[in-house]
Each structure stands twice: as structure tokens, then as C-alpha cells.
Amino acid sequence: MSVSELTLLVLRLGFLLVLWLFIFGIVYALRSDLFGHRARKMQPDAGAPVGAPAAFPSPVTLPPAAAASAPTEQFAARPSPAFTDVDDKATSQNATRLVITSGPKAGTEFPLTGDSITIGRSGDSSLVIRDDYTSTHHARLMLWHDKWMIQDLDSTNGTFLDGNRLAVPTPVPLNTTVKIGATSFELRR
Amino acid sequence: MPASSNRSTTTDAPARPPRVRRLHLPQKLRNLELFLLLIACGINAASVVLVQLGALGRIDTTLVLLGAGLSVMVLGMHVVLRFVAREADPFILPIATLLNGLGIAMIYRIDLANQETGLSSASVRQTIWSALAIGCAIAVLLIIRNHRVLFRYTYIAGFVGVALLLLPLVPGLGREVSGARVWIGIGSFATFQPGEIAKIALAVFFAGYLVRNRDSLSMVGKKFLWMRFPRLRDLGPILVVWALSMSVIIFQRDLGTALLYFGLFLVMLYLATGRLSWVLLGMSLFLGGALVASQTLDYVNGRFQNWLDALNPDVYTADGGSYQLVQGLFGLAKGGLVGTGLGQGRPEITPVPQSDYIIASLGEELGLAGIFAILALYLLLVARGFRIGFAGNDDFGKLLGVGLSFVIALQCFIVIGGVTRVIPLTGLTTPFLAAGGSSLVANWIIVALLLRLSDTVRNQPRLVV
């Protein structure tokens, strides 16, 4: 079987093309390293002009529901999110931080990135809680179909969502207390 | 039995929930890695097929052994990562695979030109060494579950590094290949370059040593011009490493290795102290040493002459002259922009086209576009390593990550710079590409360590209560 010159030419140019496509594929996959993380949902500033969100097209395409509820009349209707959002499930769109509400480090918080958060006494957990009631790998918070779910990992003393002990993975509403050992925390906007 | 069940019902009043249903989360990073890995294996197979089409005009069954051997091993490593390092960086493994596979294809191409087949051919040996190296990498991943373990063995690592470096000087064990005494061998086969492994041990040692002692190296000193210079008594470490690399130049007659170790130490020193004066001091020390060596040592002098006056007919035809260097340049020139095509050039004319000159061979057959693709792969690999180093929380991990990836970068610069006549040619292997088992083992261990580092970095606690 002999191969013609033309086939070889096409094959060798194609090979170089694939090689470069592979490189650009990697560069595309790590674009967040080069240009920073994608902006999360922008919370319009109370003082900002109303037209601002429309004037600057956001790089993130908001889902229709979130886009519709973005502008200002929402602020009039909802004076404080703490009382009105209780029934809302925390999603990657509306929950931005995890706040410790009681326990030794009450008041501290850290931002949610979309990676799952493991909770436990072991040093490889994302949220390390060192007290006598926490298990080594106690519970896990993760995004499941874009909703924040909490799952108890067979802990000894249990994980309590709003006072109820968890048996199955459960979606976490915003501003609702999750209690692990002597520490409780909430997911907030 | 009744008693125990009775007790459990009384004490666990809110009855213990049944075993929970686990939610299965997709391992996004690993899936991305698998996707890239399959593409890399596909490109590797395509390169072997192209070599066969170009050189033989038909497709041969050797492909099964060459392509599948590497692919099976890296997929095995991927599966291991799924279990022991889920959060590891997804780009390092595919990049290393692609570089290794391109190297095997090129070595196979040169085997075809020299009509070498079977187990004695360099390409089959390279495949076996790759499998062995990836096996070592898997072992490192399984044994070292946290890079901080290495911090405990700082001084042992330093001792091992220096011992490995000096091993070729032991009479009876050392082997001299083309002038440089950097090999060891038992019997007539089984040769190994211990210096390749030494660079990992030394990176661990430098990282651990500098984390422990950097305060005295960075805080004190006289300010002169716009820089703070170290005190005389703090010059000990840099002088020791300088003396070590100078002894490599003199006794092992290997310029590249010396430059590699000294450069590694200098970069890690700069990283640990943040003082430019160390770099200036170190570079002037090394340049001074190299200048003296070029005046007094014949082989260094020859290298300099080949570099500066390569196209002079006298130098070209001289014994140990610039013949090899210029042949490599001719090959690169023949390749042009898109190359002659795999299997269609004449890379075998250059001496040792499969090890030191593999980059010239690849440049001839893949052209400038191919060379730049390979350099981009190295760039991405090293950038990932730096990124892992920067993201780390502990100083040891930072220094180790940057040090290990800088070794790859510096080695590429020394070899490719030498082949393309940017710096004097020195004998080092091109990481992952060049034929040579010790280099493959060392670089795959570096890959495993970087993967381990990236996994621990991503698993750091965000908050400790």
C-alpha cells in the first residue's frame, strides 16, 4: 500500500493542527488562571444607578429567573433578606458565603466557590471543626444540580439542619442554621 | 444479644438514621484530565502512524506495542489519581504524556532510518523505560500522601543528592560516555545517570534547608547601592553549592549538569529570600568559574569555540568540532516552517539524533510550528508547576513546587539553547523527549510530586474552628 504525496502533506499539516488544537484546548481550559475567575452574580449596589446592569453586558449569562429578579423593585419588596429568603434554596447563584453563627469562631465567614466543602475534624477537610462532638469526616456541603446540599457522612453525633437531624442529603435553604457539634453556620447571600 | 439491643434502643433515643444514600459527585478535574489524556494518546498514536507512512509507506503492527504501552500506563496512573489525588492538577499528566509519546515516535523514526528493530532498538527500550518511569511515579503517588513528609528528610535528601552526584566518580562503577563521566553501570549494560535523580533530592534539600535558614540569609546585611548584600559569614551555603558545581565541571566534565544544579539553587535562594543580590552574586560566581574553566579546561574551551565560531570550516571539520551542532542547525533549517513531515526528513545524519539532538530531529520533521508547539507544552507544564507553588500555603511546598518545575524549565533552556546555538552546547537530556531511562524516571517522579503538591494545595482547610 503506497500513500500519495498529497495525502502525506494533508496528514502532516493536520498533525500540526491537532497538536496546536491540543495546546489551545489546555489554554482554554485554564483561562480562569489567565483572566481570573468568572464573575459571580452581581449584586446591584443600592447606590448604583438603575441602568448600570443593562449598560454593561455581564460576562455571565444569568438564568432567566435570576435576570428577571435582578433590578431594583426587589429591594423595596424585600427590606431584609434574613427574614424573607428562608424558603429559598441556596443555589450557586444566590449563596455567596458561609458564615459561622455560633461556636468559638462565631462571626467568621468565607466565600463559596462552587467546590464542595467537606466538614470534619481531620486536617484535610475544607472546614475543620475541632471539638469533641465532631467526627473526622462529619458532613459535606456540595452543589447538586446547582443547589447546595448537605450530606451527613455517617457522623457519630449527627448534623442538624434547622434543628432536625439529617438522614438523607438535603438541600440547604438560605439563612438556615446547620449545626455540627458546638458550631453552627448558615449560607448567606 | 437482647441486652445489647435493649441498650441501643434506650440510649439512641432519636433512633440512628439508616445508612445514608451517598450522593455521587462527578470528579470534574479527573474527567477533564481523562479527556485530555485520550486526546494526547490519540496524537501519540497518530505520530507513530505518520512516521510509518512517511518512512515505510505502510502501517506496521509495531504501533500496537509503542502506542499502547505508554497509553495503558498513563491511563493506569489516571485511575490511581482518581483514588489517591482527586484534586490534583488535570493538565500535567496529559502534557507529560504527549511529550513522552512524541519522543518515542521520533526515536522510532530514527530506529527505522538506522534499520534497528526488536528489543535492542532504542524506541522499544524507551517504551519500556517509560513504563518503568510511570510505575515509579505511581509508586511515589501511593507512598507520599503529603508532601510535608519530605520536609522531615531534608538533610537525608541532601546527603543522597550529593552521593548520587559523586557516584560516577567511584572507580569501577562510573562510566565515561563521550567525555562526560556522569554514568554508572554494572557490567556492560544497565547504565544510569544518577545525576538525574540527584536533582530531585537536591530540590527537596534546598527547599527544606532554605525554609529552616532563610531568616539569616534574608534579613541581615549591609546595604550597598540599592541592594542589601549578605554578610560574609552567610555566604557559606552558596559557596558550598558553587564548589560542588565547579567540581562537577572539573571532575565529571559536564558543564550542563553543573549549570543545572547551580541555577536551581540560585532560583530557590532568590525565592526564599526575595533578594536580587543573591542572584547577582551567584551569577557572577558561576560566570567567573566558567570563564576560568574555559581558559584552563580543554573540553570547556572547545565547547565555547564550537559555539562562537561554529560555521568556520576548520572548527566544523575538527575532531570534536562543531560538526554535530551545525548538522543540527542544517536539519532545523531544512525543516522550515512546517517541517518535512514525520518520517520524511533525514534526522539520522546528525550524530546522536535520538538523545541530545532530538529537538533538532523534531525541528526538521515538524518544522518551526512543531518546535513551538513542543515549547508551548513545556511552557504550560512549567507554568502549572509555578502556579501550584504559588497557591501553596506552606513555604516548603511553595519552594519545592517552584524548584521542581524550574528544573524542567532550566533543563529545556540548557539543551534547546545549546542545540539552537543560543548558549554553548552541553550534554543534558531534553525532559520527556530524549532517549534515556534515568531522565524519564526523574521527570516522571517530578510529575508525580507536582500532582501530589497540587492535590494537597487544593485540599487545604479554608477555615479552622
TrEMBL record, chain A:
**Keyword Nucleotide-binding listed:** no
Print the keywords alphabetically.
Membrane, Phosphoprotein, Transmembrane, Transmembrane helix
PROSITE patterns documented for this protein? FHA_DOMAIN
- Occurrences of domain FHA (ranges): 117-166
Pfam family membership, one: Yop-YscD_cpl
Query: Does the keyword Zinc-finger belong to this entry?
Result: no
Transmembrane segments in this chain: where? 6-30
Name of the protein this chain belongs to? FHA domain-containing protein
Protein species of origin: Cryobacterium cryoconiti
TrEMBL record, chain B:
InterPro entries per the record?
FtsW/RodA
Q: Native species of this protein?
A: Cryobacterium cryoconiti
Per the record, the major location class is membrane
Listed A to Z, the keywords are: Cell shape, Membrane, Transmembrane, Transmembrane helix
Please give, as recorded in its UniProt entry, the membrane topology of this protein.
Multi-pass membrane protein
Q: Give the GO molecular function terms.
A: lipid-linked peptidoglycan transporter activity
Q: Does the keyword Transmembrane apply?
A: yes
Q: What is this protein called?
A: FtsW/RodA/SpoVE family cell cycle protein
PANTHER family attached to this UniProt entry: CELL CYCLE PROTEIN (PTHR30474), PEPTIDOGLYCAN GLYCOSYLTRANSFERASE RODA (PTHR30474:SF3)
Q: State which residue ranges cross the membrane.
A: 34-57, 63-84, 91-108, 128-144, 151-170, 182-211, 232-251, 257-273, 278-297, 366-387, 399-420, 432-453
In which compartments does the protein localize? Membrane
* Gene Ontology biological process terms, A to Z: cell division; regulation of cell shape
| CC annotations in GO | cell division site; plasma membrane
| A Pfam family reported for this protein in Swiss-Prot or TrEMBL | FTSW_RODA_SPOVE
